[in-house]
Amino acid sequence: MTTDSNSGSWWSRYGAVFRFLAKAVAIYGAWYVLYDLWLLPDGRLDAWVSQTVVHAGQMVLAGLGMDAVANGRSIELAQAPGIRIVDGCNGLATIGLFAGFVLAFPGSTHRRLLFIPFGVGVIYLANVARVSLLAGLQVYWPPAFDFIHTLGAPAFFHLIVFGLWVLWANYGGATLDAGAESGAEVDPAVA
Fold first, then answer.
1. Are 45 and 110 in contact, with CB atoms under 8 Å apart?
2. Which backbone phi and psi does 103 adopt, to 5 degrees?
3. Contact by Cβ (8 Å): 112, 75
């Protein structure tokens, strides 16, 4: 059995990736436990986020000329059943996933403190757009509602989180290169 002297050990090549994955899973797990055991039973954060999304969605719909009324967690429409934002559909789980990725990937604390609120804002606005789109579909294209709600919206959110993470990895964070973490120079021909 021969080994390439330039390849290094398996851990030196892939250790940084596995550290990132372990951190991301641990942070998301901690968020999930915190959310399920404290925030969800308390209900205030979910209610507040849902109500602000409903209010912003109603403003978007009114701006587009639709007759929409915000009522608690619901957008009531004159021409259709309306939208109700329940726990799990208000974007909090997606925000936890996003924050976990950013916290797990190397980068400066200062940049994280700027990027996490930026990403939370993007996710929030995407949720307002999703709610507005779903309400509009109920009025203008009801058969598409179930498909977009069930498949399109989750894919849309995961794409946004992935895009934010790629943005963070390329512009906000450090490299996952094991040599860069240790301070050693890395030969580009070897990497």
1. no
2. -70, -30
3. no
Contact between 97 and 24 (Cβ < 8 Å)? no
| Angle of CA points 123, 52, 162, to nearest 5° | 5
pLDDT for residue 168: 92
- Confidence (pTM): 0.80
CB contact at 8 A, 106 and 166: no
Tens-place pLDDT, residues 25-84: 898 889 888 888 888 888 899 999 999 999 999 999 999 999 999 999 999 998 898 999
- Looking only at Cα atoms, what is the longest distance across the chain? 74
Residue 178 and residue 66: Cα distance in Å, rounded?
A: 54
Q: Which of 98, 153, 96, 162 is nearest to 126 (CA)?
A: 153
Supply the angle between the helices 153-167 and 92-104 in degrees, to the nearest 10. Answer: 20
Identify the residue whose tokens are 């058969």.
143
